[in-house]
């Protein structure tokens, strides 16, 4: 009887099924968006609660003292490194140099991959609470003093480039 009704009223049947499909899709999309907003908000609140402050260059949104809006604002590295002398309660500072949207080639033997590269200080591990694998290390003061070229690879990049072998001491 259902099949007979559906064949006789094709438009009504199609519209009813389309409405059910559209309603289900809308609910799934709203749940995905709300979960994304929740995760993002939770991460922001956790960083504020931990005392992490992130200052990033940007663009002015309004005119100021005769200067037009849309001016790029950048913070010189020297000024960033002097912040803890000006503000007493700063525990660690780690400037992040580079653009996470700009990729560079990382080569090891015959393997090439295109990933973002960022420069940080030895305190970045403490600030971002990075989880390092068993046979790895982060930057230290000697690396900075001696201007050594040390690379800390993310877990997935290490697997992509080195597989199960250790990356410690290798040159990329």
Topology summary:
Layout: H1 2-8, H2 10-49, E1 58-59, E2 72-73, H3 77-81, H4 83-86, E3 103-108, E4 111-116, H5 124-128, H6 141-145, H7 155-162
Antiparallel strand pairs: 1-2, 3-4
Could you describe the 3D structure shown?
- By secondary structure, this protein is mainly alpha-helical.
- The chain is 43% helix and 9% strand.
- It is built from seven helices and four strands.
- The strands form two sheets. It has a two-stranded antiparallel ribbon with strand order 1-2. A two-stranded antiparallel sheet has the order 3-4.
- The chain starts with a helix and ends in a 10-residue tail after the last helix.
- The mean pLDDT is 86.
Strand percentage, roughly?
5-15%
Overall geometry comes to extended
The number of distinct helices, counting runs of at least 4 residues, comes to 7
Mean pLDDT: 86
Following the backbone from N to C, one meets helices and strands in this order, namely HHEEHHEEHHH
**Spans where pLDDT lies below 50 across 5 or more residues:** none
SS elements, strand count: 4
Class of secondary structure makeup:
mainly alpha
Main sheet, how many strands, which sense, barrel? 2 strands, antiparallel
Q: Reading side by side through the largest sheet, how are the strands ordered?
A: 1-2
Distance between the termini: 69 Å
Radius of gyration (CA) equals 26 Å
Helix content: 40-55%
């Amino acid at each position: 009887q259902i099949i007979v009704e559906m064949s006789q009223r094709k438009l009504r049947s199609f519209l009813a099924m389309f409405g059910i499909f559209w309603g289900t899709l809308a609910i799934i999309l709203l749940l995905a968006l709300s979960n994304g907003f929740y995760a993002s908000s939770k991460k922001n609140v956790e960083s504020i609660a931990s005392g992490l402050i992130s200052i990033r260059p940007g663009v002015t949104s309004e005119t100021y003292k005769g200067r037009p809006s849309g001016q790029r604002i950048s913070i010189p590295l020297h000024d960033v490194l002097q912040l803890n002398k000006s503000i007493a309660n700063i525990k660690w500072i780690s400037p992040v140099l580079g653009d996470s949207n700009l990729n560079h080639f990382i080569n090891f033997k015959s393997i090439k991959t295109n990933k973002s590269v960022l420069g940080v200080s030895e305190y970045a591990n403490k600030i971002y609470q990075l989880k390092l694998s068993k046979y790895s290390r982060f930057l230290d003061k000697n690396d900075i003093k001696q201007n050594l070229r040390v690379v800390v690879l993310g877990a997935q990049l290490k697997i992509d480039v080195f597989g199960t072998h250790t990356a410690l001491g290798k040159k990329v």
